[in-house]
Amino acid sequence: MNEQANKLMTMLGYVVAKLNHLGDIINEVQQLGARHHQYGSKPEHYDVVGQCLLATLKDGLGDKWNDEVEKAWQAAFSIIKQRCCRHKKQRCVILQQIQNSHA
After folding, report:
1. Which residues contact 80 (CB under 8 A, 6 or more apart)?
2. Cα Rg of the chain (Å, integer)
3. Which of 3, 50, 74, 94 is least enclosed, having the fewest CB within 10 Å?
4. Which tens digit of pLDDT belongs to each residue from 12-23?
5. Of 29, 22, 23, whose CA–CA distance to 87 is shortest?
6. Stretch (H or E) spanning 29
7. DSSP labels, 50-96
8. Which of 57, 52, 59, 53 is nearest to 69 (CA)?
9. In sequence order, which residues have a C-beta less than 8 Å from that of residue 83 and are 6 or more positions away?
10. How far apart (Å, rounded) are the C-alpha atoms in residues 37 and 45?
């Protein structure tokens, strides 16, 4: 789990650093989501991870935690979640279209 935590923090830090240049990283984040979908990740898993992440950061940063920092991390995680879950949504739409065409 420690390796996964490090990967998460690395990706989040990368997204925070690129918040003003999201076009540069969207494809990478979507590829990350596709991999996680193959591992069995579900959208609700991202919610739990996000809540734990923010609580851990708040606790770890102590006095350095403020509204600006919280909003930046929320924005970063929200972007990751939306793009990672997009792969699953696209797959569901395609499957629904296939099912409808056979009906």
Report:
1. 11, 12, 15, 29, 32, 46
2. 16
3. 3
4. 777 778 777 877
5. 29
6. helix 26-39
7. HHHHHHHHHHHHGGG--HHHHHHHHHHHHHHHHHHHHHHHHHHHHHH
8. 57
9. 26, 29, 30, 32, 33
10. 11
Q: For the segment 5-48, what is each residue's pLDDT rounded down to a tens digit?
A: 788 778 777 777 877 787 777 778 788 778 877 788 888 888 88
Tell me, what amino acid is at 48? V
Given a cut of 70, is residue 51 above it in pLDDT? Answer: yes
User: How far, in Å, CA of 97 to CA of 28, rounded?
Assistant: 27
| Tokens describing residue 59 | 């606790």
Which residue do the tokens 């939306």 mark? 82
As a whole number of angstroms, the distance between CA 60 and CA 27 comes to 30
pTM of the predicted structure, to 2 decimals: 0.61
pLDDT digits (tens, 9 = 90+) for 53-88: 899 889 989 999 999 999 988 887 887 788 778 765
